[in-house]
Write a structure and sequence with these properties.
Helices cover 10% and strands 48% of the residues. By secondary structure, it is mainly beta. Strands 4, 5, 6, 7, 10, 11, 12, 13, 14, 15 and 16 form an 11-stranded antiparallel β-sheet that branches. Strand 14 (248-258) and strand 15 form a beta hairpin.
Length: 301
Amino acid sequence: MNYRNIIISAAALIVSVVTATAVNAAETNGTLTEDTTVVVGNQKIAIDTDSGRTVVKVYDMKGNEYSKTREAEFVDGQEVERVFVGSPFIPTAGLQEISFKPQFPTVFAGFSVPSGKVMNTYRKYNYTHAKTSFSIGVTGLSIAIPFDKSYLHGLTAAYQLSYNRIGFEKNYQLIKDGNGDITQQHNKGGQSSYMSYWAARLPIMYSLSYDGVGVAFGISPEFRFGSQAHYIDAVSEEYHTDNLVKAFGLNLETNITLGPVVITASYGLLPLLRKSGGLKLYNNNITIGLDIWRLLGKQRR
């Protein structure tokens, strides 16, 4: 009889019984005091519970923890809501990947179609020039809140900063009259005429997305500042008129996402100019932007 083998077998049996008893007692109390480790191939998989959640970690045979790219949570009979917050300026590797993400470009640029009516291209009496009108901007912060566990639709929002320029026919100068009303003065031999302003925008959208393709629509309040009209006359003398636009605006907005490319259409719902009298002006934009971190294949936090 081989006593050495009998002792080893008995010791292994005792360790197994003690471990099973300890795990069973810990589960009865609702928590695990130590990880349960399973070796699969050349990886160690540690299973634990934390406040009712099952937590799984993976290590190599040297004890180095693998970075987590996707995470699954198992919660007994509870609804789980996830919120994804992103910023293009703080890319972070190794964070959990969530299929429902904000659908906003990191940078964007496009042309403006100023009009005299809401959601229209009518500009018979404001003498705007669409070819010299444009908008450029960046997205600083974004957030996505899925409505259910499918992560296919939900609410998205962002903070954006944009520079906007509206061109006019070169012989028309934007001025303030004696009553402070904004009007257009017709001159001869003008070389350039345009108006510019900055806007801090807060788009709030209902979004649907799947596998990098998505659509979204909603509203975009904006807070404008730094407005100024520029005019250069026939002898190259330049004139400036400040404080022309209203401080608050509201836009109807929709976008289409195709991988890293985001196409956005924005329609002004409120008049742009202060005390404009009979001069009506609404700013509409169509822009194309890129989600730089998605283009580079990196995740955002």
